[in-house]
Amino acid sequence: MMQNFVFHNPTKVVFGQDTIQQLDQLIPTNARVLVLLGGQSAKTNGTLDLVRQALGNRQVSEFNGIEPNPTYETLMEAVAQVKREQIDYLLAVGGGSVIDGTKFVAAAAVFDGDPWDILTSWGKAVTRALPLGVVLTLPATGSETNCNAVVTRRATHSKRPFNSPHVYAQFAVLDPTRTYTLPKRQIANGLADAFVHIIEQYLTYPVQAMAQDRFAEGLLQTLIELAPGALADQPDYQQRANLMWTASLALNGLLATGVPQDWATHMIGHELTARYGIDHARTLAMVLPALMQVQRHTKHAKLLQYAERVWHITTGDDAERIDEAIARTRQFFESLGIGTTLRDYDLDERAIDEVVAQLIQHGMVALGEHQDITPDVSRRILSLALGAANQAA
Amino acid sequence: MMQNFVFHNPTKVVFGQDTIQQLDQLIPTNARVLVLLGGQSAKTNGTLDLVRQALGNRQVSEFNGIEPNPTYETLMEAVAQVKREQIDYLLAVGGGSVIDGTKFVAAAAVFDGDPWDILTSWGKAVTRALPLGVVLTLPATGSETNCNAVVTRRATHSKRPFNSPHVYAQFAVLDPTRTYTLPKRQIANGLADAFVHIIEQYLTYPVQAMAQDRFAEGLLQTLIELAPGALADQPDYQQRANLMWTASLALNGLLATGVPQDWATHMIGHELTARYGIDHARTLAMVLPALMQVQRHTKHAKLLQYAERVWHITTGDDAERIDEAIARTRQFFESLGIGTTLRDYDLDERAIDEVVAQLIQHGMVALGEHQDITPDVSRRILSLALGAANQAA
After folding, report:
1. Is the ipTM of this structure higher than 0.85?
2. What is the Cα–Cα distance from B96 to B16, expressed in whole angstroms?
3. What 3-state class would DSSP assign to B137?
């Protein structure tokens, strides 16, 4: 049965070419703005210039250097700058890491107590935050239109999610042309990340949430259709516009309405990133096909629906259809140039022990829509994800 | 090419069984609340009692009698009550007509000047409104999660839409069990109304808005799957929950992002309702199949996509596929017990002249996604919608 739900997404999406200039209407004229940035790309590709032009005479300072998988340690430096400069508006210019980091800074800058509690409480301790806006440059995580963030504590290899309604961006400017200079690797990662976000909210057990299932299947089909052209040398507006909007819709809360959710692939993947520094999307591509295989009985009905509606698999018995759907999922990632086994990333059996130990240490001992992915089940998933030794040669 | 767009829907959806009690958290405790109602159903089926219980000790008064196709004349009585009683919060309890009417009251109660200007300006004259919330009892129009409304001036047979971001409901409570006492006629109308809302945002010309097309197709498929069970004697939670959420998603702004829109079926249908009092959804069912036929060349590409993805029509040449898709659309309405010709509603050739005259009088002279539906084209659509004389016998 469809579950009760609350859906409330107040972020204003401003989408299309030449929309950065609208920042002038979106941010109060008397705001003291901190622009938060990742690496150098927004500077070298001109996006930062457009942002600064649009902000006009406002007081604007910058915080540079939010890393992929943003760290608590770095973000606390930004918090110090916010306090020092009496900043009252945050503007994230970047992808999911910059946006996630900015959400944490928004909450931590006005938090009473130890800001690490924001993460240990999964965000429940957050009661207010500075207002924030987003200029998105990397379509992938959907962070621009949701209230989730993930922060890593470097010292402890601890990668922790939190969410709070207080950290929704007030607006998100999505200009597809600002993605034209992205490396192919990032576009591939974005496709894979969005794909798995949808799967986590869809591939569980049926609750007759008909519209939500159709939306999920529609977004998966869109990503599959986009994939062959995604790695072309010349960026294409249609391609980028569709990827950008699809990745936002994949995790803006809509697909999650009234349905069970999994997220085990993410939790296991986070440990792989925290321990070995592997790109987030690539960890998902390792874990997901193995998880589908290990959980094929509890996900039986939805796997068959996925096989038929997303991959149009209509022959074979149930087991064969499910095998084929899992194989197609793996091929999708591989077609993007993303390896799907631990060995593809030069990991071996030791990684299984290390990741399982981290899952236990971080309390990730009952994952998935049935909370039945214990550390033993995670071990089976990782073992299956290892890949054949000769493949690594 | 996908068009630039702004998407901003701030309404909080509270969905599921026993959610009316959450009104206590949703409305300020010191609010002076006016509950706006349609006919007697909310009183006789217990919904009003649940609302009053949830509102507790707040000051609550009622305005009864907002009619289907709410009239300016009636709504101005509510405006007078709001002013007389210094109401500061409006709560619509009902379906699309009550919600639309409440939006108008919210804007008119604080409007400087002649409130009819709200409608002649299509809503542009609205600069503020009283806060409002919704308890939905009839899934159909999507008004609960959008900022549109339609108001009729009885004196002039004038049915006019307006929209304004100021009239979004702050929240919409959607409890599927509160629809159980609806007459079958209203459920049928709801399915037809939602279906045409989707079509108006989908069946135009392709702009490669991939996710939006998939969403529209998914919602149309959902309505088609729901239809056979919709008129069953015993209401079913799954059925009603899916209809309720699908009808909201059909017109919450999401499908319209970045795409051209039509709305000619609605504009012509409005004149049929204003002149003859025919149910809104039934006027749409009359106009749409005829409009698809008359506009089949400008809608060629999308009609073929609709045929394939929604109706799974894969044989025949283009013209045959389009014919079949139009026939299936008509059959969908007929399967709900909704007639699709003017003669089904005891109208004859004179109605064509009368409706065309009204379209001209109301300035509806360049309708559709290409603004090419002139009064002459509307006449052809209405002539085709007339139906064979012997069918009426």
Report:
1. yes
2. 19
3. coil
